[in-house]
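Justification of computing resources. Each target in the renewal requires a structure prediction run like the one illustrated here; the chain below, 220 residues long, is used simply to show the kind of job we budget for.
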Amino acid sequence: MAEPTNAAGAGAGAVAGAGPVALRTSPLAHLVERMRTATVTGPRGVTLTEWPFRTMVNLRVDPASAAAVRIEESLGAPLPRQCGHTTASGSHTVLWLGPDEWLVLSPADRVDATAVVAELRAALGADPGSVVDVSANRTTLELSGPAARQVLEKGCPLDLHPRAFGPGHAVSTTVGPVAVLLWQVDGAPTYRLFPRSSFADYLARWLIDAMSEYRGPELG
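Resulting structure tokens:
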């Protein structure tokens, strides 16, 4: 799982002159306690957590170009070439978004977005393409536990059965009415959902409601 970061914004006691990073407030800081109390334990368990402020960099480049090779060397991982595929190396995970587009994810407490952008732009050089910091565009929700797949299946049109979707898969889809990038991290199962920040509140409340039935006994 990802490393937690402080989701709370600076309060009245914040140090004068604190920089913008210290003053950030995550899109779901106001729902931290609701997500915590929504946790279900046991064989039908499921938990929902926000992992805010992750470094996210959008990358576009011709996968057949010399620039793509340089970028792969910089990342230490190949760019995924098929829909739904991901690759990882060190602090970076690369998610396929399109034939010439990827999202590079890194934990913000270990990798600064400015450094990632600078590194990838240097690798891109003067070749066609783009490298853009989109970290503020989305937040990250993590849904995990034995019932996590069943919760998602209430509002996701994808076939999430392990025969069709498993660890390492990531695709653009919807959960309820909200567009998300959905990534299955492991077989627990653990899923990470990347909604636009402006839709994060709605999605979190939708998931909390969908989780509530698993507090009761399974009906035969």
